[in-house]
Amino acid sequence: MTNQATLIAGVLAIAFLGSFSFAQPQPTPLAAAQLKDGVYWVKGGSGANTGFIIGRKEVVVIDAKMNAESAQAMLAEIRKLTPNPVKYVVLTHSDGDHVEGLSGFPKGVTVVAQANARKEMEAAFKDPKFSALVPYLPSETFATDRPLNIEGTRISLLHFGPAHTSGDVVVFLPDQKIAFVGDLVFIGRDPLIHRQKGGTSVGLAETLRKILALDADTFVSGHNDPLTKTEIRALLAAIVEKQAKVKALVQEGKSLDEVKAAFGIADAPDRRWPSFIEVVYLEFTERPAPPK
Ligand SMILES: [Zn+2]
What we know:
The chain contains eight helices and twelve strands. It is of the alpha/beta class. 43% of the residues are buried.
């Protein structure tokens, strides 16, 4: 491994470890709720919201919770509803609160992720702390889209480019008009962009436009109750407005501190995740590295 690759792997491992810093501080009891026939979302337990789809012969799970115990509590909920086995776990991205529960799934389940998310997981799992997760590295990956139809349900996996991370996936059910959007959508806090994982605010806006273009009316995100297009439209508008304001301030030659002051932002004590405004500022001011 080159020095740079080692550095990137280290940064990714730290990003992975810290990625659930905003998750629910107190785990609440896990509960599955039906959205449409055979389609459920699960909140509570440790980690982000998850979902599952019961087909005629098999079950597809979306995201894995944050530890084996919560994953198994979710699997117990599924068993109350169907004897069909879980065939696939689709990961919306590589953050720990969506991924670390994989070790609670039966070995041999097929884990599906976007190719970049797999790379992020591979780098993070080099840490011996995550050795139990290595057998669950995604065995099936894709670049931009992939059908995952199971008998009885059409499922489309979509990647619209770097946004929250470099490997975000939207799980779209065209017949039910439901989309699972992972952490591409946060309501009630600023959008989170993992620059260490190749996420960008410009890409997030682009991805939200594509999510809004889907023929869907229910959106399940990692950390909110199910949402409608109205809330996602408002989120996109707020992002675009902040980007325009930062861009104007950058053009006036303002420094990062001046930009933060214009938004009334003080650095939080936890500096692992720069504020959304800082991310936008860095995107608009960084220059490509000069040729060597
Ligand atoms: Zn995330």
